[in-house]
């Protein structure tokens, strides 16, 4: 267990604003998480599901919080499957440099970028226009 506060003003997932804007756009809040569209869209629909509490590790949550957080992650995965029909969703939860529990949900397709390997954290290949981000966010938000 850690001794982190439930909120850290220097954490992009807690503070949001400019810190979050550097790489993501908040889509919605679920019972135990925030759903964020990852701005780099090499994998269409890639999202982050960040815990609402500022914890470093899933083991820092209570049993009930952990169950709800994983339900949130599963719900977002179901939405991404429904909307984008990927062959697989990769789930990444690293936290070496960002000490706030979060999962990257990365839709992957057999005939596209990075199939069969670990996804690149930020390949920098696909950025969308403001209008394209808006449409994608609305699509995901409505399905949540």
> CATH top level?
Alpha Beta
Shape: globular
CATH architecture: 2-Layer Sandwich
Identify low-pLDDT runs: none
Helix percentage range: 25-40%
Helix run count: 4
Read across the widest sheet, the strand sequence of neighbours is 1-2-3-5-4
Beta strand count: 5
CATH topology: HIT family, subunit A
Q: Note the beta-strand portion.
A: 15-25%
Q: How large is the radius of gyration? A: 15 Å
Averaging pLDDT over every residue, what do you get?
A: 93
Instruction: Please state the structural category.
Output: alpha+beta
Instruction: Tell me the count of domains.
Output: 1
**What string gives the helices and strands in order?**
HHEEEHEEH
Detailed description of the structure:
Helices cover 31% and strands 21% of the residues. A hairpin with a 2-residue loop joins strand 1 and strand 2 (33-38). It is built from four helices and five strands; from the N terminus they run ααβββαββα. It is α+β, with helices and mostly antiparallel strands. The protein is globular. The protein has a single domain (12-143), classed as HIT-like (HIT family, subunit A).
SSE inventory with pairings:
Elements: H1 12-15, H2 17-21, E1 24-30, E2 33-38, E3 47-51, H3 63-84, E4 88-92, E5 102-108, H4 130-143
Q: What's a quick, concise take on this entry?
A:
The chain is an alpha+beta fold and 144 residues long.
